[in-house]
Design a protein that fits this description.
Number of helices: 12
Family: Belongs to the class I-like SAM-binding methyltransferase superfamily. EEF2KMT family.
InterPro entries: FAM86_N, Methyltransf_16, SAM-dependent_MTases_sf
Organism: Spizellomyces punctatus (strain DAOM BR117)
CATH class of the largest domain: Alpha Beta
Largest sheet: 7 strands, mixed
Strand order of the largest sheet: 5-4-3-6-7-9-8
Oligomer: single chain
Distance between the termini: 53 Å
Bound molecules: S-adenosylmethionine
CATH topology of the largest domain: Rossmann fold
Keywords: Transferase
CATH architecture of the largest domain: 3-Layer(aba) Sandwich
Strand content: 5-15%
Number of strands: 9
Protein name: FAM86 N-terminal domain-containing protein
CATH superfamily of the largest domain: Vaccinia Virus protein VP39
Order of helices and strands: HHHHHHEEHEHEHEHEHEHEE
Length: 353
């Protein structure tokens, strides 16, 4: 999405709408800029359409079709409420989506891709998005890894807004990477390398797809902000790492300084293998670090107090020290669903003992 050089007010409200549309913010929570609600004339409707459904991003990597349909319907209803004329283009886009949706229902083809695009901070005046192919449901195809979870969003916000030095120039290993938001944000922030790992074959495939989807944007960013060479592929790889069947030589050989993970503490059964892998990874020497070992970060959504306590006890049993980092003052960049629970961010270290 491009902006006028002067970042005019018109572009501000268009950006507010587009950023929400691409993250598929539920329409009940959508923040419509007040000034447009009074001025939804044809040119305003056309401008919204151009910045969302018919933008390059919207055409190449659209949100779920039923979401776009509801988005356009909401605008049409708002137009009705103001007594303005409908834009021909908007109406036509709506009817096209409607006919595609009923065609899909008739043929039973409900497999249309669904993308979410997350706005990232940038030094330029245009909005840069991280685009992920995700599934609309939290559990899909037998895994939780095909969508982005709350803890990944809060952790990414912490890194981007409050602690870039944790990531910049460092080699990162992510456990249970899911759709890939956290690791890709690390690469965008200037990590020297990122290894995204998961157990599920479908998730690993999706991770590769999401890495490819964002590589060019990240190369461009590196070239612009860090003077890198545009042709260099980003230093990122996707590999399998199952906490439940671990080869400890393989763990030690993983070339990382910082271990990160988000929303991987959701099932108590996973706590012993996860904390054991964390302990092994963290105890691998890293001579550049003050403790002489690697460091780790875990972001977890506190759904059940008991699971959280069990996780802390398991860290202690594995001789992993943790410090909870406050997130309440970290500004938000992304949309967050209501009532998903508080996110705790833990900084993990080990000592030689
Ligand atoms: C709730 S998802 C979180 C995904 C991502 N980190 C996020 O926050 O959006 C949990 C992830 O952990 C992965 N996972 C579950 N058990 C695992 C195991 N034994 N080894 C490695 N990854 C595992 C799942 O495949 C899934 O991708």
């Amino acid at each position: 999405m491009s902006h006028d050089e002067d970042g005019s007010a018109e572009h501000d409200w268009l950006t507010i709408i587009a950023v929400q549309y691409f993250q598929t913010v539920p329409l009940r929570s959508f923040d419509w800029p007040q000034n447009i609600l009074h001025k939804l004339d044809v040119s305003t409707q056309d401008a919204i359409l151009r910045e969302t459904v018919q933008s390059e991003l919207g055409k190449s990597y659209p949100p779920e079709a039923s979401y776009s349909l509801r988005f356009l319907k909401a605008i049409l209803e708002k137009v009705d409420a103001t007594g303005e004329e409908h834009s021909e283009a908007l109406l036509q886009a709506y009817l096209e989506l409607l006919s595609n949706a009923s065609g899909d229902k008739l043929t039973g083809d409900l497999s249309r891709a669904c993308y979410k695009s997350y706005p990232l901070p940038t030094k330029t005046s245009s909005t840069v998005y991280l685009t992920l192919h995700e599934e609309p449901l939290k559990i899909s195809q037998g895994t939780t890894g095909l969508c982005t979870w709350e803890a990944a969003l809060r952790f990414a916000e912490y890194l981007l807004n409050a602690a870039p030095e944790v990531i910049q120039g460092r080699r990162i290993l992510e456990l249970g990477a899911g759709a890939g938001l956290l690791g890709l944000v690390c690469l965008y922030m200037g990590a020297s390398s990122v290894e995204l790992t998961d157990v599920d074959e479908g998730v690993l495939e999706r991770l590769k797809e999401n890495v490819d989807l964002n590589s060019q944007m990240i190369i461009d960013r590196m070239a612009r902000d860090f003077g890198g060479h545009q042709s260099n592929p980003p230093n990122i790889r996707v590999s399998k790492l199952d906490w439940e069947s671990v080869d400890f030589d393989d763990i030690a050989s993983r070339n990382a300084e910082i271990i990160v993970c988000a929303d991987v503490v959701y099932d108590p059964i996973l706590i012993p293998p996860l904390t054991s892998v964390l302990g092994s990874l963290l105890r691998t020497p890293h001579h550049g670090h003050p403790t002489g070992f690697r460091e780790g970060w875990v972001a977890l959504t506190m759904r059940q107090e008991q699971t959280y306590k069990e996780f802390l006890s398991a860290l202690t049993r594995n001789r992993i020290r943790y410090e909870r980092i406050r997130l309440d003052r970290v500004p938000r960049l992304f949309y967050h669903e209501d009532n998903v629970g508080e996110v705790a961010l833990l900084h993990l270290t080990v000592a030689d003992s």
